[in-house]
Amino acid sequence: MKFSPLVDDLIQSLRCLPGVGPKSAQRMAFQLLERERKAGQKLASALASAMSDVGHCTACRTFTEETHCPICASSRRGHSDLICVVETPADVLAIEAGGHFSGRYFVLLGHLSPLDGVGPDELGLSLLAQHLAGGEVSELILATNPTVEGDATAHYIADMAKKHNIKVSRIAHGVPVGGELEYVDSTTLALSFNGRLPI
Amino acid sequence: MKFSPLVDDLIQSLRCLPGVGPKSAQRMAFQLLERERKAGQKLASALASAMSDVGHCTACRTFTEETHCPICASSRRGHSDLICVVETPADVLAIEAGGHFSGRYFVLLGHLSPLDGVGPDELGLSLLAQHLAGGEVSELILATNPTVEGDATAHYIADMAKKHNIKVSRIAHGVPVGGELEYVDSTTLALSFNGRLPI
Ligand SMILES: [Zn+2]
Ligand SMILES: [Zn+2]
Predict the structure, then answer these.
(1) Nearest to B16 among A16, A39, A96 (CB)
(2) How many angstroms does the Cα of residue B141 sit away from the middle of ligand 2?
(3) Over the range B66-83, which residues count as b (16 or more CB within 10 Å of their CB) and which as e?
């Protein structure tokens, strides 16, 4: 016996959110009950709609309830000859926030990870192959994470692009602008030496 | 243009949760969409039910969808002559976790804070007065927080209890068991000196 069933159930259900432990779930439930009932109702219906109606863009695989996401549906970007391959929709947002890329994306929704059963099929690579075979793509920019899995995934996709004679590149990894050398990890530092450019 | 409307709406709605900024809202939305659809649906319906059906216990004011919360409804504790006054339902849970108190509670859902428009009415003190006048209460234990507002609230309620000739006490504040003196803040330390007991 903790609280009454509906309150216990709310606290328990909030635990499905990443980073929410028992204490924060309680705090969230009480705050909603005390003074955010309207917002709580709105969240309930936003959740219900999104969970049941959001699928994947048929062109780039990002989340959307439409056939095409806003970028793939745009006349300006939807048929760009530049495709940037990223692991997650959050990566799209990060790149869009920069505002320098005006091509389209392909979202893997993960990276190759054979031990977890994630292979080329799970990453939608046959859909990417269709784009490559379509003759519309002039360059594939690989922006997977600089991790063992991200690198392996980038190499796999680079091989696919080469088979189609499509130019392929990998974004540079190195010391972040404004970052201080002494606080940068050694792997990043090694990458920044490997990727050095003549000035 | 960020994502499609349902996804944007989900991310925005998650911001009503305490401690959830734009980045964590995104992370939550993507995790739910990627691999927690069932849990997300369950959260949506738990939220909808709780927001619309949970009210307050008519005896102690804690959150419940019933007339009485489980403690007030229990035959063993519901008419206890000991009432512990706390600020929030979370305080009830903390005391219950200790397992040493077997009386009932009165939950203020706040503390006196005239500047925020929180007076005796907002804290349900007329309901508490009814309990005190009912002749069933032998002692009122004040467990409001050791803050300026919590103390003021405790004093106000202590005066009410005295008018009804009911014994009133305040829980002790001091150095936590297992705590190290040097890490305890000076206010707590002062309280622990004021509350010293002969051995
Ligand atoms: Zn798309
Ligand atoms: Zn109650």
Answers:
(1) A39
(2) 16
(3) bebbbbbbeeebeebebb
Q: What residue ranges do the domains of chain A occupy?
A: 5-53, 63-170
Ranges assigned E (strand) in chain B: 55-56, 63-64, 82-86, 104-107, 139-142, 167-170
* pTM across the whole model: 0.81
pLDDT tens, residue by residue, A182-197: 777 878 877 777 777 7
Tokens 């000196």 appear where? B193
CATH code of domain A63-170 = 3.40.1360.10
CATH code of the domain occupying B5-53:
1.10.8.420
List, for residues A104-120, the tens digit of each pLDDT value. Answer: 999 999 999 999 999 99
Both tokens of A92, joined, read 């799209």
Joined tokens for residue A100: 């320098």
A47/B contact by beta carbon, under 8 A: yes
Q: How far apart are CA A49 and CA B11, in angstroms?
A: 12
Quick one: tokens of B106? 């009165």
Which ligand gives the minimal distance to the CA of A7?
Answer: 2
Query: SS3 for B157?
Result: helix
Phi and psi angles of residue B92, each rounded to the nearest 5 degrees, phi first:
-60, -45
Residues 20-39 of A with CB under 8 A from B: 24, 26-34, 36-37, 39
Domains A5-53 and A63-170 share a fold: no
ipTM surpassing 0.90 = no
Q: What is the DSSP string of B156-184?
A: HHHHHHHHTT-EEEE---SPPTT--GGGS
- Residue A20 in contact with residue A39, Cβ under 8 Å? no
